Amino acid sequence: MKLAVIGTGYVGLVSGVCFTLNGNHVICVDKDEEKINKLNRMESPIYEPGIEALIEVNLREGRLSFSSDLTDSVRRSDIIILAVGTPSLPNGEADLQYIEGAAAEVGRAMDGYKIIMTKSTVPVGTNEKIRKMIASQTTYPFDIVSAPEFLREGSAISDTLHPDRIVIGLDNPDLEPVMRKLHQGFTENVFVTDIRSAEMIKYASNAFLATKISFINEIANICEKVGADVTEVAQGMGMDRRIGSSFLQAGIGYGGSCFPKDTNALIQIAGNVDYEFKLLESVVEVNKGQRFMIISKLHESLGSLRGAVIGIWGLAFKPNTDDVREAPAREIVEALVAEGAIVKLFDPIAADNFRKQYDHPQLRWCSLPEEAAKDSDAVCLLTDWSLFRDIDLHKLAQSMRKQILIDGRNLYTKQQIEGTGLEYHSVGRPQMGGLSGYSQSVAGAV
Ligand SMILES: NC(=O)c1ccc[n+]([C@@H]2O[C@H](COP(=O)([O-])OP(=O)(O)OC[C@H]3O[C@@H](n4cnc5c(N)ncnc54)[C@H](O)[C@@H]3O)[C@@H](O)[C@H]2O)c1
Ligand SMILES: O=c1ccn([C@@H]2O[C@H](COP(=O)(O)OP(=O)(O)O[C@H]3O[C@H](CO)[C@@H](O)[C@H](O)[C@H]3O)[C@@H](O)[C@H]2O)c(=O)[nH]1
């Protein structure tokens, strides 16, 4: 089949490239010409493991092309996939200007029957708006399909090629075999439903995963006070198949371009029909507070942070991506700056993106984790990049001014910490390498 993917970001680029792998011809379209020029030079504008090799081979073999000419791309394609951004408006609602703009452009470009498939995350009822928008621009027939995307950044290619399920919302049953064929080889697990339910499945799934994270973070906060270990608790809970072990990793909370935006959008979607989604409001609230646990732990150990030197490990919202949208690191670093600390930052991939969004004279940019730790009063690990796991913690402790390590992602084991001389704080686990929190209060009581 011939496809045009409108929007060549984290979703459009990965889906476009992956759709070439099961026999389709794909044009990835973006209005950002710099992005398209880069891609035509076989350079990826985003960091996503494995993407550049796939771009290169498919471009060379003629199954993939990149263009900033939407009209021409639409005319050469049978299926048009909308993958533009749907960011948050200040009130939390999804900003539909890009998707509506793209839909109108597609409508104007049409020169015959097309299937328009929405991959962007859009509030319930948006595909109906898209249908009207396109109909107002063309007299050619077309069908609308909602195909929400569930890939995760950092593992986007394997998530696309081996998804748990593909959700397809449609109102013309003739499209079902076409959609199954389009996704052939990815999974047999294609769930076909109506358009509004498909739109809701996306928000409900993200909201549910965000709920699991805020739930385990609250359990972690309680564990810390009662002397239990949240990693053990999560493991024990996850063995119950009804609960499942995924998304129970306690830490500084969720970030990224999806969970924060989609939870807020769902609260607004509910609010628009006079329903207060109290559970989800609490999930968001808990998540907002969780990141500042890093600052509280620093205060516990260092008192005032004025003049303190703090090393930061990890700026991306999760490992294996350069994406810093809604990364918890942003608010943590801002808070440290506001309290008068000197902040030494390291991230293996996302530092440039972070720096484009936020820079300050109190920030020192480091090219190695050891450099960020050297002569620091504390190091805070904010992103669980695997390279941090292999750092020599004995040497690290010796290079620091004060030996405090705050692990916001529970990356290290007891064995790794023992004997290093580090005062180690994690999230919801008993103190290791020093006395404080629960262990201190128990010690005081004995
Ligand atoms: N990032 C993720 O992991 C992820 C996963 C699943 C779903 N989603 C959803 O997918 C959508 C896209 O997200 P993203 O992270 O890929 O966004 P992104 O910001 O990385 O990319 C969007 C791209 O669309 C382009 N664009 C906007 N209007 C255009 C137009 N009229 N013509 C051509 N190009 C246009 C922009 O230039 C940009 O390159 C969002 O709705 C998001 O919620 C994202
Ligand atoms: O147990 C966990 C799992 C994740 N996180 C955090 O949650 C955020 C999101 O992580 P993840 O879901 O892995 O990454 P995303 O790329 O944001 O993917 C989510 O958002 C996408 C956009 O909608 C969806 O397509 C995916 O299915 C959904 O997992 C990150 O900050 C993680 O650090 C935790 O704190 N604990």
TrEMBL record:
Active site feature: C258
Record bears the keyword Metal-binding: no
Annotated EC: 1.1.1.22
GO biological process, alphabetically ordered: polysaccharide biosynthetic process; UDP-glucuronate biosynthetic process
UniProt xrefs under Gene3D superfamilies: Cytochrome c1, transmembrane anchor, C-terminal, NAD(P)-binding Rossmann-like Domain
Keywords for this protein: NAD, Oxidoreductase
PANTHER family documented for this protein: UDP-GLUCOSE 6-DEHYDROGENASE TUAD
Protein name according to UniProt: UDP-glucose 6-dehydrogenase
